[in-house]
Prior knowledge:
Layout: H1 13-22, H2 24-31, E1 45-46, E2 54-55, E3 60-61, H3 63-73, E4 80-86, E5 91-96, H4 97-113, E6 121-125, H5 130-142, E7 145-148, H6 155-165, E8 169-173, E9 175-178, E10 181-184, H7 185-195, E11 202-206, E12 220-222, H8 223-232, E13 242-243, E14 247-253, E15 261-266, H9 268-281, E16 289-292, H10 299-311, E17 315-319, H11 331-339, E18 341-346, H12 348-357, E19 374-377, H13 384-394, E20 398-400, E21 412-413, E22 430-431, E23 437-440, E24 453-458, H14 473-481, E25 487-496, E26 502-507, E27 511-514, E28 517-520, H15 521-529, E29 534-544, E30 548-557, H16 565-579, E31 589-591, H17 605-612, H18 627-638
Parallel strand pairs: 4-17, 6-7, 6-8, 8-11, 11-12, 16-17, 16-18, 18-19, 19-20, 30-31
Antiparallel strand pairs: 1-2, 3-13, 4-5, 9-10, 14-15, 21-22, 23-24, 24-25, 25-26, 27-28, 29-30
Helix pairs in contact: 1-2, 3-4, 3-5, 3-10, 4-5, 4-8, 6-7, 9-10, 12-13, 17-18
This protein binds coenzyme A and adenosine monophosphate.
Amino acid sequence: MSAAPKAIMTSRYHEVYGHWQRDSHGFWAEAAQAIDWMRPWAQVFDPTLDVYGRWFPGALCNTCYNALDRHVERGRGAQPAIIYDSPVTGTKRSISYSGLLSEVRTLAAVLRDLGVAKGDRVVIYMPMVPEAAVAMLACARIGAVHSVVFGGFAAKELATRLDDAEPRLILSASCGIEGARIVAYKPLLDEAIDLARVKPEKCLILQRPQAEASLVKGRDLDWAETVAAARAAGKDADCVPLAATDPLYILYTSGTTGQPKGVVRDNGGHMVALAWSMQHLYGIDPGEVFWAASDVGWVVGHSYIVYGPLIHGCTSILYEGKPVGTPDAGAYWRVIAEHGVVALFTAPTAFRAIKKEDPRAALLAGHDLSRFRTLFLAGERADPDTVQWAEHILGVPVIDHWWQTETGWPVAANPVGLGVLPVKHGSPTVPMPGYDVRVVDEAAKELPANTMGSIVVRMPLPPGCLPTLWKADDRFRESYLTEFPGYYKTADAGFVDEDGYLFIMGRTDDIINVAGHRLSTGGMEEVLASHPDVAECAVIGVRDELKGEVPCGFIVLKSGVTRSPVEIEAEIVALVREKIGPVAAFKLAVTVGRLPKTRSGKILRGTMKKIADAEPWSLPATIDDPAILEEIGEALRRHGLGG
Ligand code: COA
Ligand code: AMP
């Protein structure tokens, strides 16, 4: 990458990145000093192990010990570890490090007594309540591999994950609360277990007063009763020594088909990377209050609601609410002021939602944000308008940063802990140590500055990134390592400018980002195709002012279908909600006579997207029948799209 301009040199970034470039193993060995190990590693990185090598082989450690026990042992016991703030239930609860440790010890003992042992999988299907974090940490304590499934997914999606992870136990709750809507989780869980090939032995159900669930005899246990009985009996579980390379969790994320990818996270490298990022990237000191306004069902929740802040000895906010409507667009300012938050991490969508409701940020008035230092945005492209608005109303640096479920921590950022680099709107700034980011053409040849191409990372990936996919080494190789030999394919496209700043312009596959949620249009197409009246279909992401992108489905009806297209379109919308879940935000199905294709039969999704977004488009040379594009434009205009 090209040399940095003068202004950049005031930050320590180049010195630190250079250290990593010169001596990667030395760099990570030094970073690993932030972690308490039960036995040191034999090698910092062994390239011969598994698919592409493993970090810290030979070391023994425990993530729960590093997140809780050691802080209590060293005097942090009385400090809040988690502040649960739930405007949707009117609850606020501060849980100290000692208190959290005590809850985790007891739940870990319950899991153990239910037969969960090291290496067993436990699925967690829970809303944003402290018990979700307790569940993750309890698994980590005994070496069980957790897999948290986001609550906005439907039963079928949950069932797919149950079949892949094969959990011995499921931890769930009776309901979640989505703004004013109570979402009963238990019927979804029961249906998923019915659908799944692999059935759990037991389910531990947290009853919430907003909607109590009926329990299945012999299978379901009441969380509160079971934990209370264990506590009364003095049950307790110590940390199990685990290999640094043992899995801590599996987190499913959208792939290009309906079959999600099970991203595996290890224990040792993960802790090292998170600890480094909390200090140097986010610029947070132990004892400070950090808030990632996401959900434990996403990678942001894993890394920066639960593990990162706790490993670093911070107080983490667990917020059960929305940026708007709970009760208004001042909710974020209230939380920041009330709990002394120093940095907030959220998706640009949240700020677009706040800006829409309160464009002058009138609701900021009266909130003391004097301790607030930085706003971090990720999950989708941070549009310059939103960034500028946030800078203007908050008067603090607004930092875009770029990463993926697979990487577990940011690939590119403006590392404020090393001194803020000049911000360029539209860029997540520069690669973090560990990531040798390049922009290449289809032949894996590096492209010059300011030229769009595929963004790849030179192997090996740093600590914290996925070593493989769960039970799917070959899929891991095919998805990420084969297309550009020697590199990890991010499946994002973009460029690097003359100052070495990265610009991320969009995905190269069929993944779309809806309100910062990652979704597969391929998975949605599978659902559309399952409708009995649909002959052919295509789903694309179209631009949306609030959510960045929303899905739009095109359907071609089977010949002989005489029912009203409007009726069928409504059924399609309901079907996606039923099969994938409300999080897909699939609200638009458009019936067309034919789909535009190349002569070889490939659907021209890119051109359809341009038409829908009212962007200039040119007639593809290989198109089978150009008149179809006119028809598509017409159909979109009938639905208010396409300009
Ligand atoms: N359980 C059940 N349903 C859920 C859910 C959950 N955990 N999370 C979302 N849903 C539902 C929503 O209620 C909504 O349902 P609806 O179609 O009946 O309205 C649907 O899934 C889509 O959710 P969402 O895309 O979040 O839209 P929204 O209109 O509810 O909220 C925002 C819009 C902007 C307020 C919201 O998207 C937001 O807070 N975004 C911040 C981004 C974020 O947290 N990203 C995570 C990655 S960092
Ligand atoms: P997820 O795995 O859900 O975190 O989604 C990862 C994808 O979200 C990336 O591959 C990008 O396409 C997109 N993404 C995340 N952060 C950013 C960002 N800061 N700018 C642009 N796109 C982003």
